[in-house]
Design brief:
By secondary structure, the protein is an alpha/beta fold. The protein contains eleven helices and seven strands. The strands form two sheets. The chain has a five-stranded parallel β-sheet. Strand 4, helix 7 and strand 5 form a beta-alpha-beta unit. It is globular.
Length: 205
């Protein structure tokens, strides 16, 4: 049964529809999980990567990090030179939910993603389902990222959406709270089964 109070659904991409994880690369670089985790938590951190998601040039970020950690130069360079090795497959169970929503035609479907503008073309080329969206807003292209309120508002304004009739799905609770702060209904994604149950609970399926 269609929920007539909901007009649009926004998906995050990484961790919801696309499997991306730097461990896929660094488990090939290091011999132990402990070494991998130490490097990702102390050198090429998520905060550092998110700066590039917000539009900072990759070459500059790499040079600056090497100047702080010269002993890790080859490993730091690998982060972006071998970035495709971090990119896993589509998360097929969630893509199937997305496909059903697209086919039933009751809702406009959008993506709001924290992703470097330099790297997002690789995803567009690889994942055919990205063409199913009515629109995609990429942080690196806008020079801002989730959970900035302005970033959500860019999508709402560009596609003439009403926050009160929009749902946002993300695997980051921080980003879900950011959406809720601008009046969008948030769903904190854990897995496809849980997502379908949440969507059924609000009358989407």
């Amino acid at each position: 049964m269609m929920n007539k109070s909901i007009e649009a659904i926004i998906f995050d991409l990484g961790g919801v529809l696309i499997d991306w994880n730097p461990r896929y690369l660094y488990r090939q670089v290091y011999n132990t999980e402990e070494e991998t985790e130490w490097f990702l938590q102390n050198v090429t951190t998520l905060d550092w990567n998110e700066n590039q998601d917000a539009g900072y040039p990759i070459h500059k970020a790499t040079e600056e990090l090497i100047s702080k950690h010269p002993e890790w130069e080859p490993e730091i360079k690998s982060y972006y030179s071998r970035w495709l090795e971090m990119l896993g497959d589509a998360i097929h169970e969630t893509v199937e939910i997305f496909r059903q929503l697209k086919e039933n035609g009751n809702y406009k479907l959008y993506a709001l993603t924290n992703w470097s503008a330099e790297l997002f073309p690789h995803a567009r080329e690889r994942f055919e389902f990205l063409k199913w969206f009515n629109g995609i807003v990429v942080s690196g292209e806008e020079k801002m990222r989730k959970p900035s309120a302005e970033f959500y508002k860019i999508l709402l304004d560009r596609y003439h959406l009403n926050a009160a009739t929009t749902i946002f799905i993300d695997d980051s609770l921080r980003n879900v709270k950011g959406a809720e702060a601008v009046g969008i209904t948030g769903i904190h994604f854990h897995n496809a089964m849980q997502l379908k149950e949440e969507l059924q609970r609000v009358g989407i399926f």
